[in-house]
Amino acid sequence: MYDGLSVEVTTLTTSGDNSLLRGLRTALEGADQALLCVAFVQKAGVHLLRAPLEQLGARARLLHTTTFTECSTALGMAHGFGANVAILNQGSGTYHPKIYLARRPGELVAVIGSANLTGGLVNNVEAAVMLRGTESDEPIRSAWEFAEGLWADPRRRAWDPVLEGATDEETFAPELYGELVAAVDTHHHVFHTLGPNPKPNRIVGMTPAGLYVSTPASCTCVRGRIRPRSRAHPCEVDERVRSCRSVLPLAMLGRRQHRIANDVHQPPATIDRHSDSSRIPRYIRVPEASRVRD
């Protein structure tokens, strides 16, 4: 128990409107510095916090472990945003924290919970507690001291993109991504598939590397991620990756065109997904459904 505290405590979850992701973004935006200590890092998680990470640049520190898995592409992405990335592989015990810390004049923020820096920020059932206060508040100060102790561990090493073999990730072409963002804004994140029996799809997250989609089936199973692909015709089936092309982005753009056409009393334009003359500049694939593991 602590007396005389002025700490604001908020519970954050991925349920509903995903207060966890919103809380993390709010905590990091406008911060003078940030320290993220997580056990798992994926490209999706880095993309979901891209804006504040780019804003922070070298004032953001990311401490990760390679004990469980290699994630050079994700770490390379964070490094490319300017973050100071480091690896801590402890000889004893398992590095397994999920702590997000931010500091700004007169305020410290700590988000501590179950979520790693992965697609689980939108795909998984996660929960955390956000603490807001000052350096004089013992709970937040203790969280910072713990994380700074991890960063000061002599076994920590700087992550080197050249030595680690980081590679660039493919992203949506800017024109397509802009169209998709506008379509989401127009339709309030909900779209119906094309065809005689349209079904609702809810966009639960967007990054330049993909769309996170919740479908009627995924509500009882898993959520799928639509990812950009630069080769092959959009209606082909790629047997090498056992995936098929998704028409969801086409449906999104088609619905938006229909809305715009109705607003100006003109017939809607059509998108032919079987034609090479389609206005879609990049192609999409849906990987086999798999739950994010962290």
Please describe the topology of this protein.
Layout: E1 8-13, H1 19-28, E2 33-38, H2 43-48, H3 50-56, E3 60-64, H4 72-80, E4 84-87, E5 98-104, E6 107-113, H5 120-123, E7 127-133, H6 138-151, E8 157-158, H7 161-164, H8 174-187, E9 190-192, E10 200-207, E11 210-214, E12 224-229, E13 237-238, E14 243-244, H9 248-263, E15 283-285
Parallel strand pairs: 2-3, 3-4
Antiparallel strand pairs: 1-7, 2-5, 4-8, 5-6, 6-7, 9-10, 10-11, 11-12, 12-15, 13-14
Helix pairs in contact: 8-9
Characterise the protein shown here:
This protein starts with 7 loop residues before the first strand and ends in a 9-residue tail after the last strand. α8 crosses α9 (248-263). Strands 1-7-6-5-2-3-4-8 form an 8-stranded mixed β-sheet, sandwiched between helices. A 5-stranded antiparallel β-sheet has the order 9-10-11-12-15. It has a two-stranded antiparallel ribbon with strand order 13-14. It has 294 residues and is of the alpha+beta class. The protein is globular, with a radius of gyration of 21 Å. It is built from 9 helices and 15 strands. 29% of the residues lie in helices and 25% in strands. Mean pLDDT is 75; it is low at 220-245 and 264-294. β10 (200-207) and β11 (210-214) form a beta hairpin. It has 2 domains: 8-164, Endonuclease, Chain A (2-Layer Sandwich); 174-285, no CATH class.
